[in-house]
# Entry
Amino acid sequence: MLNLQKIEAGYGESMVVRNVNLQVKPGQIVCLLGRNGVGKSTLLKSIMGLIKPKFGSIYFNERNITSFPTDRRAKSGIGYVPQGREIFPQLTVEENLLLGLEAATDGRKKTPDSLFDTFPVLRQMLHRKGGDLSGGQQQQLAIARALALGPTLLLLDEPMEGIQPSIVMEIEAFIESIKRNREIAVLLVEQSLEFATNIADYYYVLDRGKIAAEGRTDHLNEEQVRKHLTV
# Structure
């Protein structure tokens, strides 16, 4: 489904990600682990087209999308929830969700009811401004907005960061439901090794911009991985 080949990306002349090869198979949950500042978010932005790789290729469903603009990647079936959520605080929950449909190729103008089944609190807050929601509710909104187009691949950049434990549990349950149904593949950026081993099928560890370790989570060598996660 997703295949990154020798990706190098960064800002200006500074390369943050170097020679990264990574794959996500259909219906697979893949976790990208690593300390702060090692290039995890940069890699996701490269996949989404927000940063243009200096070198390498990105394939999605066996199609080279390296030169595709961000909106075309969304239309191709990639959903993205950035770190920090980036919802529109002055727009209502409903308006934020409708913006998620802007890239729809089938002309749909209505938010799928299934999103409210997944995150019921959003139905109750449709007319409330996004900026008035708690951090956890904003995260739910950001995920729902990414799901509005019905992606086959979802990129989640530290979705548990800075939110209350009750909503962490709801988001974990949501990812677990994706894993059960195997209808959407997920590339999840996370720092919690425990969560990664519980939810993911496969893991990659990024250290200093390079893949330092990878493998199936049921074969994960905790000692080897932790040395790349501790400061």
User: Anything to note?
Assistant: The first strand starts at residue 2 and ends at 11. The beta strands are 2-11, 14-24, 29-33, 55-60, 63-64, 78-81, 153-157, 185-190, 202-207, 210-216.
